[in-house]
Amino acid sequence: MLDARFIRENLELVESRLKSRGTGIELDGFRQLDTRRRELMQESESLKALRNKVSDEISKVKDKSLVQDRIAEMRDVSQKIKSLDDELRGIDEEFDTFLLTVPNIPHHSVHVGASEADNVEIRKWGEKPEFAFEPKPHWELGESLGILDFERGAKLTGARFTLYRGAGARLERALINFMLDLHTGTHGYQEILPPFIVNKESMTGTGQLPKFEDDLFRIDGLDYFLIPTAEVPVTNIHRGEILKGADLPICYTAYTPCFRKEAGSYGKDTRGLIRQHQFNKVELVKFTRPADSYSELDALLGNAEEVLRRLGLHYRVVELCTGDIGFSAAKTYDIEVWLPGQATYREISSCSNFEDFQARRAGIRFREDEKAKPEFVHTLNGSGLAVGRTLVALLENYQQEDGSVLIPAALQPYMGGMERVGK
RNA sequence: GGAGAGAUGGCCGAGUAGGUCGAAGGCGCUCGCCUGCUAAGCGAGUAUACUGGGAAACCGGUAUCGAGGGUUCGAAUCCCUCUCUCUCCGCCA
């Protein structure tokens, strides 16, 4: 959420920056609501001031019969206040809804562009593996090895659900543990295991609501939702809190399953594990001082990259342009891993700085020291990494001509010493 | 699922025959004084949001005693709804 005062005082700037994302802003509507809101507020509050003053005087008079006329007068004032407040409530609601549906302003360093095609490649790590044979896509490898069962996943639930079996299930679990150990050990994050179902306030705090309800699984009859990412519960840990400056940055990592409806992606990535309604992810989340958030973003990105380096998987880092960054983000880097079975790079992590956009929605502040005014923190997060897609990358990159798959050394301790998945 | 208790400021904890309560007291914290250090002692201060004025320091207004409604000239205090916490019973991984 943007600061209403900031919008009011920087109308043109806000308009042009949002335009670069491809989203407009209804400035006239905002101006009208904002003006009317403040008019009503002033009128109502000055009447309240009068009522408070007179009520105070009435309280000092013992014989109330002497002040009957004043009481009657205040009865009318109260009626007037009530009707003003009723109107104000409506305006406030519209005003809040408006603010909650305006996306974040991109950081000035973000390249202006219309779509994915305008994203900028920042760097590459490693090399594409070479094969003396035609590399297969992971769904063929997974099925022939008996570790991924797409048919039974669909039987149990429906499309975009998969059953893992044997070494496949073990490999997924190994990746989760490997990532968590790396982030908690070497990178210094604290491990969190949050609820996988959250309420409406949490979804609003990070920006999924009110605009993107169609992407969420909702619990019937309740304002509860299955989390689409650990970002939601983990960022909302500190909703409504004032943190101590000395405690910043706060760095959390969490493994959770993620649930997404994938509305509007019919026909896309229908085969394999790439796009599932339920997938596993290890997430990294930071709360930082505003001045530190961009260096912390670089560090977070590096922490996510480290997972791929240790697994020996070739990847590139892409900086998203203004037209491609998400609703809440001010700046985003995607890490894309090489998938030889499909001869393409696929997103395996997305690392963003939300600046104070989520912090303002969720009321997450800090006080630099005892005397300082509370300020909004900056929130950041990134996948570290998407586990299912990491498994995909392992299968496709480490596949052998005989259909078996080698397990990289870093992962072997988590696989009970297993060096290869074969039939 | 059944029965009961409770939710007050950073923390603890007063406050229910409605008014002088943004809220006693204590702790903590900040600043100052004092004591050769520490401790103790003394004094002052110590919420947030919105809003009006001001270049600013700051000054004024409104709201906030779990949340939302209601009664009243006036509500932390009365009424209704909801949420959460705790205790006991039942059930259960």
Topology diagram in text:
Layout: H1 4-9, H2 11-19, H3 27-60, H4 68-100, E1 120-125, H5 138-145, E2 148-149, H6 150-156, E3 163-164, H7 167-185, E4 190-192, E5 197-199, H8 200-206, E6 224-226, H9 231-235, E7 242-244, E8 250-259, E9 278-288, H10 293-311, E10 315-319, E11 331-339, E12 344-353, H11 357-362, E13 365-367, E14 375-376, E15 378-386, H12 387-397, E16 405-406, E17 420-421
Helix pairs in contact: 3-4, 5-12, 7-12
The chain binds one RNA strand of 93 nucleotides through α3 and α4.
Structure commentary:
With 423 residues, the protein is of the alpha+beta class. The strands form 5 sheets. The protein has an 8-stranded mixed β-sheet. A 3-stranded mixed β-sheet has the order 7-13-14, with no helix packed on it. Strands 2-3 form a two-stranded antiparallel sheet. The longest helix is centred in the N-terminal third of the chain and has 34 residues. The two termini are 52 Å apart.
End-to-end span in angstroms? 52 Å
Our estimate of the beta-strand percent is: 15-25%
Let me know the largest β-sheet: 8 strands, mixed
Shape: elongated
What ranges have pLDDT less than 50 throughout 5 or more consecutive residues?
none
User: How many strand units?
Assistant: 17
What value does the average pLDDT take? 94
Give the count of helical stretches: 12
Over all CA atoms, what is the radius of gyration?
27 Å
The topology string of helices and strands comes to HHHHEHEHEHEEHEHEEEHEEEHEEEHEE
- Percent helix: 25-40%
Structural class: alpha+beta
Lateral strand order in the biggest sheet: 1-10-11-12-15-9-8-4
